[in-house]
């Protein structure tokens, strides 16, 4: 059945104090019989027993069960081996009945009626049935050992190992227990460890004697009738000499093994018997309640009738139909126990709960920021049309060649745009710092979601994103972007009708290109707090008082202009005629302070040659449209880099061969990506700190809980409960603790965030939360908590059951 081949076991292996507990031990145990490992303390007998029972692992050698080498003892230990430990290994907080029934449940017996029948039979065998409802910690040492024996028997194992099973039992019970073992040995294997030689000789079929880890004797034994060891509390009267003193009122029986001279006085007075003895004679009182008993027979009269017992192996047979899926720890029970632990704690532990809750809240902050960093950048977060490009010379200090930019739209460096909407009875505005403007002639028909392209200069096309911002802001009083078509918006103090909505990325407005160019020019000349306003709409009828209309000329930084009569009167108060003005100013009027092209860092001002005076407007200066565009283009190309707007890939390819060309939208995305990378690092560090502190809290709390249960864990392992079954109980503890602390704090923050997501956090993109990120946070919380919380128990369960008992002195 069980074979050990060349087993060796060393402790403190490789160190100077290495101890060789067992050396090259081999044995083939029989299928039945009582085999005793005999030896004094330190001989290695218990180490061998632990290896046989799977409580410890050999340093070298193999253990066979049948013809197979045993690699995993848990299943065999729980189903096929019965254990009787020297220190009992009972669950002290459970009743005697529950202690014994535990091993039946461990092998999958769930029939309560059958369990009751088996447990009561086993307890009755060891005379412990009257104590079935008592807690194990309420029993004496001998009683606890008898319960341990009942527990070993109740599952009817293939064989039983017993480590000093009668060490804490009195002589009467010792005989009964050994009789049971002897009866079992008639049909099953019993492996016994003892240092009592007379016990081994009487009951054993085979005695293996060990000294310092080595077998010095292995012999077949024939039981001998020698009961000195079982009758320590009995005085056999027939083995003593006997004198009798008999008178009418006093009968005395005097028993002795030798006959010393003793002077005894018996005094009876007031209902009490007094005995007067010499001081050198020891005295003990024997009555029905004393531990010492007298029997009127001889030791030699004890024969095989004493080993008779009512024990029958067949009565403990476990029907295979009664064995099902074992349910040691049901989920309901584990949850109940875990929640009870939460509330039956001291104040210090409750403060730890609060700390974990706060950690969960802070982790919620961190995970949403982390989510904002790792999530792809939404199109709506990049308010730039993909047709914007930045062009700069490949060599710093070089200029751009104007000829390369003929017929290419040059984008003005406009910092912000004021956009308002007009509705019947009111006007409202939106935040427009992210709004871009572009020419509409680059739009194509399949980009239009609603409406069409512009047909007049007072029309505008709106991007889908900007249109949706109108709806969200509630400025238009409508609920769908298609209804924006035909509505009026205000841009640069002019009214424009929305003609269509396009699907292009970014918040953009698309105008007539010539109108945009004119608007940029006007903004260029009126940057900051200026006195004069340049107007380029000379197509309108104006009243020319003197001079002529300006020509399409821009040479030597000079442009022909018309000025209003008010400017004329203010600037030339002493001149009476236009010709006199020209003479006084040498045919030109230059104002480098008022008309400097600051946006384009122009080193010189523009010279304005006044060729006429108009009566319209107070502060107007009017120039030829084409001349102004030349001014704008010339000034724009003087800066280190410019922005262009085009959807023509051939244009970009041509410019890329000569200059550095950068897609502005891609640059914004790259910038955001770099920022996100930085955020990922920062939030990852923050989250790591928070979750590490939480993990440490879980770690120490679980280690503390494990320390309280160390005895119980040892009993589980020694009886054959699998590691994962023990780990499962701690998993439930950790999950419950994490749920009612860290997770609650986490969801408190999530609830706050969802409530205020449309507020500042959502606007500025500080945090982002969606179902995936929230789930990721929950996943990380549980995973980190489980890892941190399970480390103590995993490290503990690396030890063998024998090492557990030795390390923690159980």
How would you characterize the overall build of this protein?
By secondary structure, the chain is an alpha/beta fold. The chain folds into five domains: 2-230, P-loop containing nucleotide triphosphate hydrolases (Rossmann fold), CATH 3.40.50.300; 234-301, no CATH class; 331-376 and 669-807, no CATH class; 418-510, no CATH class; 516-642, no CATH class. It is 37% helix and 22% strand. It contains 21 helices and 35 strands. The strands form eight sheets. Strands 19, 20, 21, 22, 23, 24, 25 and 26 form an eight-stranded mixed sheet that branches. Helix 9 (347-374) packs antiparallel against helix 16 (664-708), helix 17 (710-719) packs antiparallel against helix 21 and helix 18 runs antiparallel to helix 20 (771-796). Residues 579-604 and 758-766 have low confidence and may be disordered.
TL;DR?
The protein is of the alpha/beta class. The chain is built from 21 helices and 35 strands. β1 and β2 form a beta hairpin.
Structural class: alpha/beta
CATH names the topology of the largest domain as Rossmann fold
- Biggest pleated-sheet summary: 8 strands, mixed
Q: In percent, how much strand structure appears in the residues?
A: 15-25%
Q: Provide the residue-averaged pLDDT.
A: 78
């Amino acid at each position: 059945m069980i074979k050990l081949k060349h087993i060796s076991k060393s402790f403190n292996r490789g160190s100077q104090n290495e101890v060789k507990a067992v050396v090259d031990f081999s044995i083939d145990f029989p299928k039945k019989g009582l085999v005793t490992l005999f030896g004094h303390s330190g001989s290695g007998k218990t180490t061998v027993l632990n290896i046989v029972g799977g409580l410890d692992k050999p340093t070298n050698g193999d253990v066979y069960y049948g013809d197979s080498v045993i690699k995993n003892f848990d299943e065999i230990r729980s189903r096929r081996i019965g254990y009787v430990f020297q220190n009992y290994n009972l669950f002290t907080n459970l009743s005697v009945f529950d202690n014994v029934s535990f091993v039946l449940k461990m092998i999958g017996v769930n029939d309560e009626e059958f369990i009751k029948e088996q447990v009561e039979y086993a307890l009755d065998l060891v005379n412990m049935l009257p104590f079935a409802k008592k807690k194990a910690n309420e029993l004496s040492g001998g009683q606890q050992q008898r319960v341990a024996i009942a527990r070993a028997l109740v599952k009817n194992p293939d064989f039983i190992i017993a480590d000093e099973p009668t060490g804490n039992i009195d002589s009467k019970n010792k005989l009964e227990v050994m009789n049971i073992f002897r009866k079992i040995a008639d049909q099953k294997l019993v492996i016994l460890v003892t240092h009592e030689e007379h016990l081994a000789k009487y009951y054993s079929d085979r005695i293996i004697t060990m000294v310092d880890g080595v077998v010095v004797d292995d012999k077949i034994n024939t039981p001998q009738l020698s009961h000195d060891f079982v009758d320590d509390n009995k005085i056999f009267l027939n083995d003593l000499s006997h004198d009798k003193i008999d008178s009418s009122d006093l009968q005395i029986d005097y028993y002795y093994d030798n006959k010393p001279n003793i002077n005894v006085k018996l005094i009876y007075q007031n209902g009490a018997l007094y005995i007067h003895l010499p001081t050198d004679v020891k005295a003990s009182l024997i009555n029905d309640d004393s531990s010492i008993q007298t029997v009127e027979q001889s030791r030699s009269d004890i024969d095989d009738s004493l080993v008779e017992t009512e024990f029958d192996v067949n009565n403990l047979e476990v029907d295979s139909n009664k064995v099902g899926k074992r349910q040691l720890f049901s989920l309901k029970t584990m949850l109940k126990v875990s929640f009870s632990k939460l509330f039956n704690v001291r104040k210090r532990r409750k403060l730890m709960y609060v700390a974990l809750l706060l950690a969960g809240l802070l982790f919620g902050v961190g995970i949403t920021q982390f989510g904002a960093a790792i999530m792809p950048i939404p199109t709506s977060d990049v308010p730039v049309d993909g047709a914007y490009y930045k062009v700069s010379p490949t060599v710093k200090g070089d200029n751009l060649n104007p000829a390369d930019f003929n017929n290419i739209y040059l984008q003005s460096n406009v910092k912000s745009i004021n956009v308002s909407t007009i509705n019947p009875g009111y006007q409202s505005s939106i935040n427009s710092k992210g709004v871009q403007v572009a020419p509409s002639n680059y739009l194509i028909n399949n980009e239009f979601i609603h409406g069409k392209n512009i047909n007049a200069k007072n029309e505008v096309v709106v991007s889908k994103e900007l249109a949706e911002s109108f709806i969200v802001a509630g400025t238009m009083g409508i609920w769908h972007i298609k209804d924006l078509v035909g509505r009026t918006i205000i841009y640069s103090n002019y009214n424009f009708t929305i003609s269509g909505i396009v699907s292009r990325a970014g918040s953009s407005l698309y105008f007539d290109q010539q109108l945009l160019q004119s608007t940029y020019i006007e903004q260029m000349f009126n940057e900051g707090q200026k006195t004069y306003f340049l107007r380029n709409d000379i197509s309108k009828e104006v009243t020319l008082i003197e001079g002529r209309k300006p020509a399409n000329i821009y040479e030597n930084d000079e442009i022909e202009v018309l000025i209003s009569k008010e400017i004329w009167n203010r600037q030339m108060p002493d001149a009476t005629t236009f010709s006199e003005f020209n003479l006084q100013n040498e045919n030109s009027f230059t104002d480098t302070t008022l008309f400097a092209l600051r946006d384009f860092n122009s080193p010189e001002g523009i010279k304005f040659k006044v060729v006429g005076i108009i009566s319209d407007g107070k502060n107007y200066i009017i120039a030829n449209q084409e001349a102004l565009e030349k001014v704008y283009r010339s000034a724009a190309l003087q800066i280190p880099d410019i922005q262009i707007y085009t959807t023509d890939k051939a244009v970009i390819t041509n410019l890329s061969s000569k200059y550095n060309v950068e897609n502005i939208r891609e640059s914004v995305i790259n910038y955001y990506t770099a920022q996100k990378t930085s955020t990922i690092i920062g939030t990852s560090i923050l989250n790591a700190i928070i979750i590490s502190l939480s993990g440490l809290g879980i770690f120490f709390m679980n280690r503390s809980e494990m320390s309280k249960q160390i005895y119980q864990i040892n009993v589980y392992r020694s009886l054959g409960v699998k590691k994962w079954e023990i780990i499962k109980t701690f998993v439930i503890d950790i999950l419950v603790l994490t749920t009612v602390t860290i997770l609650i704090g986490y969801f408190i923050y999530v609830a706050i965030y969802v409530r205020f997501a449309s507020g500042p956090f959502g606007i500025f993109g500080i945090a982002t939360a969606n179902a995936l990120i929230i789930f990721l946070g929950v996943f990380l919380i549980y995973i980190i908590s489980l890892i941190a919380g399970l480390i103590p128990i995993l490290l503990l369960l690396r030890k063998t059951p024998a090492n557990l008992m030795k390390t923690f002195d159980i």
